[in-house]
Amino acid sequence: MSTPTATTADQAPTAGTSEHKVPATAIFATEKCYLRPFEVSDAEALAEAANDPELIKYLRAGFPSPYTLADAHSRIEYCHTHPILAFGVFTLDGQYAGTVSLEPPTGDRIYAGTRELGYFGARKFWGRGIMSQAVREFTRWAFATHPELLRIEATVFKPNEASKRVLRKAGFVEEGTRRLAIVKNGEQIDEDIFGLIRTDVTS
Ligand SMILES: CC(C)(COP(=O)(O)OP(=O)(O)OC[C@H]1O[C@@H](n2cnc3c(N)ncnc32)[C@H](O)[C@@H]1OP(=O)(O)O)[C@@H](O)C(=O)NCCC(=O)NCCS
To answer: Is residue 143 part of a domain?
Structure first.
């Protein structure tokens, strides 16, 4: 799956605030945010948001911590050079507010039609409904623009209620629990699986 860089006419972003225009690279805009591919100049804001112990609490151990400027540059470089869909989420006045991504699940090629959803929001914007809107519209956009995509899945640490709320509001179905699948910082935690298939959003 390649990363489109331009917006099609029927998905044209709406205008931003009077001072800030939604850029032409945005894949869509909502009343709270727009999503666009990362630019190298986003590295500082990404590092500032991601270097947050509260944010990584429910993320996999592979997520860098501390999260340095070099980590941010390396992630942006990865997004530009790999077949993933990864976008920055920006407020309508142009501030970096989070990240959404769809990446191939690790494992067998039998999961060809599946992509794994990842996301986080910058803590200063939590609770404003931005990530709920970003995730919901991103998944719709992904199905609409990638006909080969059959299923989007997300795995969530069981105690991560905010994340489960975001997924439920996007229409994800709770498909089950992997009991004690996660061991992080010596703690054993259940993992909940959420799935969204094309017909969940089109029928
Ligand atoms: C999950 C996350 C993206 C939500 O971001 P956000 O900007 O706060 O999201 P929103 O404002 O759109 O909505 C959050 C929802 O969770 C609810 N919520 C927030 N904290 C909560 C908590 N501790 N318990 C229960 N619900 C909670 C909010 O009330 C809101 O639901 P509502 O709209 O029905 O009231 C953010 O908390 C985050 O980045 N967490 C760390 C990274 C992470 O967990 N990523 C997901 C990995 S699966």
So the answer is: yes
47: alpha, beta or left? (left if phi > 0; alpha if psi -120 to 50)? alpha
Q: Which of 52, 58, 55, 63 is nearest to 192 (CA)?
A: 58
Q: What's 24's domain CATH number?
A: 3.40.630.30
In this prediction the pTM is 0.92
Q: Residue of the nearest CA to atom 34 in ligand 1?
A: 165
Structure tokens at 124: 């200063």
Q: For the chain, what is the domain count? A: 1
Across 13-27, 50-64, 81-95, least confident range: 13-27
Residue among 40, 36, 33 nearest 6 (CA): 36
Give the position, in ligand 1's atom list, of the atom nearest the Cα of 117. Answer: 48
